[in-house]
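chain below, 101 aa
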Amino acid sequence: SKLYRINKLFAGAKGFKRVTITIKDVLIPFFVLITANIIVLTTWTIVSPLRWTRTVLEYDDYDRPTSSIGQCSSENGAPFIWVLVVINGCALILALWQAYL
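prediction:
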């Protein structure tokens, strides 16, 4: 949204026009992006929450764990990750396009 404001200023400067940029020009894209992310992440948490699992790698002579690894995993996380990649990827492509202009 910052690049959009800068491009709007330069476009107005070409025609020697006064350009008014409001807070709304920045906040609307921000709230759209943050709301989309919150909706996807909240849905993911409700539908398929992350679970912590620990796997023991080694035991000592008395059958006590000496080494283990753990990770968070979700049974159906891939679709949510792809939706987040698409949403934030589109925002990145739009920002790159604005920077190119």
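The chain is about 60% helix and 20% strand. The mean pLDDT is 89.
thats it, cya
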